[in-house]
Amino acid sequence: MTVLLHEEHASVRPFGAPDQKTDFTPGRVSIDKLDGPVVAVREDPRSSFDGHVLEPPWDPLDRAYFNGYALWTYLTTPFLLAMPGFTVTEIEPWREGDELWRGLRATFPPEIASHSTHQDFYFGPDRLLRRHDYHVDVAGGFAAAQYVYDCVEADGVVLPTKRRAYRRHANGHPILDQVMVSIDLSDIHFS
User: Are 124 and 146 a contacting pair, CB within 8 Å?
Assistant: First the structure.
């Protein structure tokens, strides 16, 4: 996975075949051969999700779009919140066990593709991200709580290497037997 830090652009390699990769921006997603030719492309990819529910039959370009915006969001958090167009306000903290996590609600600008316009971020006493709440608009808008942990330092930046997203009850608690996404990161570098 490669993401740009100052603009929303991401790529997964390999994708679908050893000689293919994705190329994601909010307005376009493609699957490309590593040597250049385009295998498949979709302009305005968000519109292909109109009417989707929790378990839609996603095609490879749908998966490439989701992977692109989701991983770009995850790997650029919290820095993306300082980009132009974002609004961030403090919200009620979240109690997790015996810890109280400080909460921030971010409103994403329309030109940034992500799970939903409003997303909540919770930070532990050490000011590291612990949880990220959102609605997955491209899959019927279900509520998710994503827990992040096992932080490492990569080129001077501390970030989580494990992410587990669960469906979320109306009371905010995760439904622990409904893991929606499980991500493990390794070999992280900035350049």
Answer: no
- Percent of the chain past pLDDT 70, that is, above it, reads 99
Following DSSP, what letter does each residue of 140-152 receive, concatenated?
Answer: TTEEEEEEEEEEE
User: Beta-carbon neighbour count of residue 136 at 10 Å?
Assistant: 21
How many other C-beta atoms are found inside a 10 Å radius of the C-beta of residue 121?
23
How is residue 100 annotated by DSSP? E
Average pLDDT of span 78-102: 96
End-to-end distance of the chain based on CA atoms, in angstroms?
Answer: 13
Residue ranges of the domains in the chain? 1-55, 77-191
Residue 12 near residue 21 (C-beta atoms within 8 A): yes
Q: Give the model's confidence band at 56: pLDDT under 50 very low, under 70 low, under 90 confident, else very high.
A: low
> 3-state class of 187 per DSSP?
coil
Vertex 109, ends 161 and 106: CA angle to 5°?
A: 55
Count CB-CB contacts under 10 A for residue 80: 19
Of residues 132, 86, 136, the one with CA closest to residue 111: 86
The CA-CA-CA angle for residues 71, 74, 78, to 5°, reads 150
CB neighbour list of residue 184: distance below 8 Å, 6 or more residues apart: 161, 162
How confident is the model over 172-191, as a mean pLDDT?
94
> Which amino acid is residue 144, in one-letter code?
A
In Å, how far are 26, 77, 180 from 82, measured between CA atoms? 18, 10, 28
